[in-house]
């Protein structure tokens, strides 16, 4: 058995190195040694990887011969959310990067733009080489996967986040809007939704022994996301300590985004009347929400927005 499956990803040294508070029990007490922006950049240099090093030949066999059609359709919800989500957020980072008030912040966000592009390339290679979709190019695959998304996903990405990014494009000096955008992007979209989905998708594939190259690459995507979220936690803590109005901006953004995030965590193909405790791929909607809430709570305690015990 490989190192990937003998140790939970969050316990690995490379994951712990990101300083994401969600990975640390000490964050329950509000304690975390957050890396500064230059240290996060240096960590990015050390944690490079290449999508072209992945061999999807066994994944193709698994997808077409081991995973039944109805399960393939159900799996597409989670995979589609990531593929389309990575492409959407990559487009939004430019105005956020330009609006950052410090050069070291901007330099780190440049690395995140590169990461998000690599994540899109990872999913595109998986879809193309495994033969998941009928479309023959990146644009077509993005359009085809979009059919699996629910309305809350569109509202969160195309309204809540994009509205704020568009405001930053017009006025890069609007730091309150930047704080709101980082809150939605790094705390909710990446911190709650992406990392929660990654945790359970990786865990299920490891238990089933399916899609080994996908799991290998997805673990690297998750490690990148933890590093991004660590930046978000550091930025929001710094800004909230600078001025109370930025704390209020975080709270406003949370109030807008959290109800939408709750909806995204419920797959489109599950009827509303179906209870949250029905098991899907080894877990339940209630368990995914609990996992996401715990991670968010730890980050907010370190930022200073939630009282510690």
Can you describe what's shown?
The structure is a single chain. With 309 residues, the chain is mostly helical. The chain has a single domain (51-303), classed as Ribonucleotide Reductase, subunit A, CATH 1.10.620.20. The protein is built from 12 helices and 2 strands; from the N terminus they run αααααααααααββα. The protein has helices at residues 3-6, 13-16, 37-46, 57-66, 69-99, 103-130, 138-146, 151-170, 175-208, 212-242, 244-264, 285-303; strands at 279-280, 283-284. Strands 1-2 form a two-stranded antiparallel sheet. The N and C termini lie far apart (39 Å).
Q: Care to give the gist of this entry?
A:
This protein has a single domain (51-303), classed as Ribonucleotide Reductase, subunit A (Orthogonal Bundle).
Topology readout:
Layout: H1 3-6, H2 13-16, H3 37-46, H4 57-66, H5 69-99, H6 103-130, H7 138-146, H8 151-170, H9 175-208, H10 212-242, H11 244-264, E1 279-280, E2 283-284, H12 285-303
Antiparallel strand pairs: 1-2
Helix pairs in contact: 3-6, 3-10, 5-6, 5-8, 5-9, 6-10, 8-9, 8-11, 9-10, 9-11, 9-12, 10-11, 10-12
Which descriptors apply to this entry?
309 residues; mainly alpha; Ribonucleotide Reductase, subunit A; two-stranded antiparallel ribbon; 2 strands; 72% helix; disordered N terminus
């Amino acid at each position: 058995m490989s190192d990937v499956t003998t140790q939970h990803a969050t316990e690995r040294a490379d994951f712990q190195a990101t300083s994401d508070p969600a990975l640390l029990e000490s964050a329950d007490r509000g304690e975390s040694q957050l890396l500064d922006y230059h240290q996060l950049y240096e960590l990015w240099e050390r944690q490079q990887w290449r999508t072209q090093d992945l061999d999807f030949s066994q994944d193709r066999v698994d997808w077409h011969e081991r995973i039944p059609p109805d399960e393939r359709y159900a799996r597409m919800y989670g995979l589609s959310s990531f593929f389309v989500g990575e492409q959407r957020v990559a487009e939004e980072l430019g105005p956020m990067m330009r609006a950052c008030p410090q050069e070291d912040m901007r330099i780190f966000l440049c690395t995140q733009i590169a990461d998000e592009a690599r994540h899109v390339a990872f999913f595109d290679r998986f879809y193309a080489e495994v033969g998941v979709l009928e479309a023959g190019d990146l644009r077509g695959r993005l359009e085809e996967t979009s059919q699996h998304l629910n309305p809350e996903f569109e509202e969160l990405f195309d309204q809540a986040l994009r509205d704020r990014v568009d405001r930053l494009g017009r006025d890069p000096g609007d730091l309150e809007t930047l704080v709101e955008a980082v809150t939605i992007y790094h705390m909710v979209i990446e911190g709650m939704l992406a990392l929660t989905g990654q945790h359970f998708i990786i865990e299920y594939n490891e238990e089933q022994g399916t899609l080994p190259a996908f799991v290998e690459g997805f673990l690297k995507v998750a490690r990148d996301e933890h590093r991004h979220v660590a930046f978000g936690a550091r930025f929001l803590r710094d800004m909230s300590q600078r001025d109370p109005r930025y704390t209020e901006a975080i709270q406003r953004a949370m109030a807008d985004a959290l109800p939408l995030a709750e909806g995204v965590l419920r797959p489109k193909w599950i009827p509303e009347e179906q209870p949250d405790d029905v098991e899907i791929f080894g877990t339940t909607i209630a368990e995914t929400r609990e996992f996401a809430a715990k991670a968010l709570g730890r980050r907010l305690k370190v930022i200073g927005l939630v009282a510690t015990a």
